[in-house]
Amino acid sequence: MQTINLDYLQLQDGQQLLDLGCGHGRHTHAAYFHARCQAVGLDLGFDDICVARQGFLANPDLEPQTGHARRYDLMVGDALQLPFKDQQFERLICSEVLEHIPDYQAALSEIWRITKPGGRIGISVPHRWPEKICWLLSDDYHNTPGGHVRIFNAAALRADFEALGFHFERRHLSHGLHTPYWWLRCAVGVNNDRNIFVRAYKKLLEIEILKNPPVLRLISKLADRLMGKSVVLYFTKPDQKA
């Protein structure tokens, strides 16, 4: 399940991409197979990095290694003190991470520091009004260790990136079909996986992700526009030579 559109990032062979807060590696995996790039996944949780590694081991790259070779690297690290040199990455993804970080402004400064001039980044956070409903329905949804510490206003977040010097490119909403699922989970208990309605809706989402039939594809596009669970912002770092 991808939140960031790699076509919008214009990921190319030979580039380095950082998936900041990679979790189980969904975007790291996608980038690795999207282009012959170096995909770097970093997360604060060691267990998440282990799961991401298993995803690579279960799906090896079977293509001949000609020209630019693919490579992935996985590591534990802190978004507030990234272990990379200045201007290292041509592309960066930070998906559903900033809402977990109390000092998110420090993370934004690190993103600016390690992005090359001319580089492109994709950022996603929970969409404001669907997220507010989740918070209203359940304290357990966000009030847990490592949970969400804020609800972002997308316009304000865009302004934060622009204040650093990033140039805004576009935005879109994503995962609209997931919004009612999380409202349902919040209503019956976030950890109540045995609820019959939760289980039925989860099956629907699995069909969408794994098979993506035309009917669900159409409904999903409509739902994205009406009630997308995530808001996705794309920026470029101005080329200093321009």
| CATH architecture descriptor text of one domain | 3-Layer(aba) Sandwich
Strand line-up in the sheet with most strands: 3-2-1-4-5-7-6
> Main sheet?
7 strands, mixed
**Principal-axes shape call:** globular
CATH top level class name of one domain: Alpha Beta
Strand content: 15-25%
Mean pLDDT: 94
Give a description of the structure.
This protein has helices at residues 6-9, 26-34, 46-58, 104-114, 128-137, 154-164, 178-188, 196-210, 214-227, and strands at 16-20, 38-43, 71-76, 89-95, 115-126, 167-174, 230-236. A seven-stranded mixed β-sheet has the order 3-2-1-4-5-7-6, with helices on both faces. By secondary structure, the protein is of the alpha/beta class. The chain has a domain at 6-127 and 141-175 and 230-236: Vaccinia Virus protein VP39 (Rossmann fold), CATH 3.40.50. The chain contains nine helices and seven strands. The model has no long low-confidence stretch (mean pLDDT 94). The longest helix is centred in the C-terminal third of the chain and has 15 residues, at 196-210. The protein is globular. Helices cover 40% and strands 21% of the residues.
